[in-house]
Structure formats: structure tokens, C-alpha cells
Amino acid sequence: MKRLAPLALAAVLTAALAATGCSLDSSGDTPAGTVKVVVGYQSKTINTVTAGTLLRAQGYLEQRLQKITERGGAKYQVEWQDYDTGAPITAQMVAEKIDIGSMGDYPLLINGSRTQANERSKTALVSVTGYNPKGALNMVVVPTDSTATSLNELSGQKVSASVGSAGHGTLVQALSRAGIDPAKGVEVLNQQPQVGATALESHQVGALSQFVAWPGLLVFQNKAKLLYDGAELNVPTFHGVVARRAYTAEHPEVLEAFLAAQLDATKFLNDKPFEAAKIVADGSGLPQEVVYLYNGPGGTSFDVTVKPSLVQALKGDVPYLKSIGDFADLNIDGFADEAALRTVYGAQGYGDYDQAKASTVNPSRVTGTDRVCGRSVDGAPTAGELWLDGADRPEPAADATCLLRAVAAAKAKGTVIRAAYIPDAELGTRWFADKASWLREGQTYLPFTTPAAAQRYRQAHPAAVVVSYDQAVTEVRG
């Protein structure tokens, strides 16, 4: 990975805009007396859905703006622009062509730095869409036939990543912790996610480091296997919303309507995660099983509040920003501006903003009763879910062993299993049960997102033995 000069990085952003193949939903010229708002989003970055795919599909923003019109206010026209990464959204905001956008934490940092030189393009971080307190939203995957079991084995190889993205930032941090110089130890190919996925499948690269939903998608499609879980960094990662200050100063009611609409979408997702996953799947083209992996209970924490831990994590990302280019210093405390969100939060009846901001509990957790083990789940951190074909919604499982028993029972009846989800026993990352690395310790079965995680557990628990997923299902059936 080479250090990029400012002009070179600008070229990267411009190239990303040209290569993204963005789809524009434009109504042409804006009628006189109509206020236009252009929203940039990423339909396949499913932790921004409450400010993008789900928000758009439900029409919450248009509904909020229509209420302003009905009260005697202006008329509004919303234009949605869909991109693959945050870089082209930032390029368009620099050009003052996007008013509100959503992206991951590292792109947010770049956005704040790149836009601040011009008062018309200067942005503020106004809300969060979703976060993971440990960093599990970014992962490194390798081809299914790769023999690599740790990051150290990537030394000297080509790795695909979108430079400036959250996935790339995680790769840089992870390599550094593993004792590998990110600039010399591997050759990073700056590729859009879909290009990198093709490169991985054709073995043009030894690994791919990306943000959600790409790792889960490739693993679900049996095109890759997980090598590194970003949760190992134990550093929060998140996605958020930025808005151009000049635009929101001229149209503060638009920002308030957007934030109220985002709250609508967040409540809908947390109240009805399965239904929301179907809507997002239809809008993004992603399999619903993959969307529900991240957007389902126990996955991403969808919480709009700008938490101190997330702001602090953004400050910790500054060295990464410096490593890829000569960016202007960014006052992150000034960049994070939650004033409008705080006002809207209270006005919409969501309660005490500061209390919500202080909470780190995932608003969406697995609940109900495990019918196989006969136990109440009630948001237990070990709880998973089993999605059977034809079922109205997934069934809760109290823990990994109970999930395996439910899978065995379904298989015995010949029922097709759409997906089985279970949290990693070490890091808590929600993952596909059939793609996990399994151990058996006595009569207890333990799932891990990666072989490295399972090996760490075995070092501390030598009695634990390796079992395959199919073997574990057979054993619990017996």
C-alpha cells in the first residue's frame, strides 16, 4: 500500500465515482418553489439501511417532508443516488451535488477531512445508523480452498480492498497487530467490492478485506471462507450520516425531517427485523439470509445516537487517514454535531437522548422460547436462530447446542433449512452456524467464526476437540 498524495487520492475518489455505476433516481429539473434534497446511500452496505435502502423503500423521508408541505411549507423533491462505497458519495459532496450521505467510519473520517476546505461542501456527522462495539462489521475472507488460517499467512500476497473504506482500515489495523507492515507486507489492490469478489473467486488475490455485507455474502455463496473477524480488534466500528452544513443551514427542516425519518426506519427495523430484512433484500438484491445475518437480532446495533465510544474510535482512526494521504487535520469533536438529532429525538417522543446515548445494549435481541430445549431465550448472549423454509419467521435457540438439536430435528423431518445463526463463543459475532468452526467440550458445542478463534480456545481448554458442523448435528441427534 503506497502513500497517496492529495491529488492522487482525489483521482482515486474521482475514479471511484466513474467506476461505481451509480443508479440515479432523478426527476429532471426541479420546479420553481420546490426544495430539492439529494441523498447518497449504499444499497448493499446494509448497516446504512436506516438512512438508505429501508428508508427509501418505506418512503419515510417523503412522508415527513409532505407533512411540512401540508402545513403550508415548501414542496420538496427527493433524489436518491446509490453507490457501492463511501468514496464517490464524498466526491459528490465535495462538488456540492449530494446534501446528505451515509457511509462507514473510515469514509466518514475522509469525508470530514476532504469537505472542510469549502464552506459550501463542509459536512457534519449528524447521526449513526448502526454499530458493532467490537468491530465485527469488517472481515477478511480467503478462497474456499485456501490453506491460510491466520493473517500472518497472507504475507507477500495480494489482498483486495477498497482503499479508504472501513474494510481497508480494518485490514491495516489487523496487519499491524499481527506484526506485518501494511505498506510492505502485502500488496493491496484498490478494487471495488464486486471487482474484488471476482478477483478472489478467480484466485487473482489471496484475500479480500471488506465491509458488510460482502464477507457474509461470499461465505454464504460458498465462494469464500472467513479468515479474520474484525471483532478481534475490539475497537468499535460504525456507519453514520453526514450532511452538508451549508445546505442544512438553508433548510434545517429537511435535516430534521431526515433524522425523524431515520428514527422511523430504525424503530421499524428493531421492532420487525425479519420483515425489514425482506424489504432490504428486495431493495438491494442481496439474499435475505445474508441481510438477516447482519440486520437480525443480535447482529448490528441499530442506534442513531452519537456515542462517545464511537467518536473516540473515530479519533483512533486518524493514523490510518494519515497513512493513505496528506489529509487536512479534522477536529472530530466539531465534526460530530448531534444538536439536530437531540432536538428531533425528544420531539418525536423517543425519550431521554442522553440516556439512550449512554446505553450499549443492542436494541434488537433474540427473544421467545426455545421449543426444542424448552427454555426461555430472553435476549441471552448465547442465543441463536433457526430459519426453516416455509416458516413465518426464524425460531429462537437458547444456545449453540440447542440450535444443533433443532437443526437435527428439522433434518430428520426433511425440512429445508434456509439459515441458522449463532453468536461466536469468543467474540459474540453473529454468524452462519454451518460456516462456523466447531468444538465439542464434554456435551457442550461451541461455535467460532474462524479457525484461529477455535484454536485460541483449545489452547486454554485442551479437552475441547474439533468437530465439523455436520458431525456436531449427527452427534446431538444420537
From TrEMBL:
<keyword id="KW-0732">Signal</keyword>
<dbReference type="InterPro" id="IPR015168">
    <property type="entry name" value="SsuA/THI5"/>
</dbReference>
<feature type="domain" description="SsuA/THI5-like">
    <location>
        <begin position="125"/>
        <end position="276"/>
    </location>
</feature>
<protein>
    <submittedName>
        <fullName>ABC transporter substrate-binding protein</fullName>
    </submittedName>
</protein>
<feature type="signal peptide">
    <location>
        <begin position="1"/>
        <end position="18"/>
    </location>
</feature>
<dbReference type="Pfam" id="PF09084">
    <property type="entry name" value="NMT1"/>
</dbReference>
